């Protein structure tokens, strides 16, 4: 952001997911994927919530043609869920393997995309479809 651009009025993107098996989902996302727990609360009737740090958040809006293009590149044309969560990771192949060992269902093995990232796709706990991606040409300021 340059000095002339105003800050976004949105301070945080928080994706809220109902997890029928809360403990399994928490272990998967916190312990296996490695998203640190920032906050956790318990309430009456067994209510529980954990807020996990997912790094920088963006909202990617794609029209149907773009979704079909991504599906063809990333998953041999298998249609993606209406909402798919994409995580940038340092090692897409290794992280994919760890998540499959922890119970995720592999949809598509990691593969290099035309936009120079290594992407895989998984069905994961709490009913989420995930894309893991590793940037092969890091942007300035990225490790």
Write the layout of secondary structure elements.
Blueprint: H1 22-32, E1 37-42, E2 48-52, H2 64-75, E3 84-88, H3 92-101, E4 105-112, E5 117-124, E6 128-135
Shape: globular
Shape-level CATH architecture: Roll
Using the coordinates above, name the CATH class: Alpha Beta
What is the helix content? Answer: 10-25%
Domain VOC: 11-135
Pfam families: Glyoxalase (PF00903)
InterPro entries: Glyas_Bleomycin-R_OHBP_Dase (IPR029068), Glyas_Fos-R_dOase_dom (IPR004360), VOC_core (IPR037523)
Protein name: VOC family protein
Can you describe what's shown?
The chain is an alpha+beta fold. It has a single domain (22-135), classed as 2,3-Dihydroxybiphenyl 1,2-Dioxygenase, domain 1 (Roll), CATH 3.10.180. It contains 3 helices and 6 strands, in the order H-E-E-H-E-H-E-E-E. It has helices spanning 22-32, 64-75, 92-101; strands spanning 37-42, 48-52, 84-88, 105-112, 117-124, 128-135. The radius of gyration is 16 Å and the shape is globular. The two termini are 19 Å apart. It holds the Pfam family Glyoxalase.
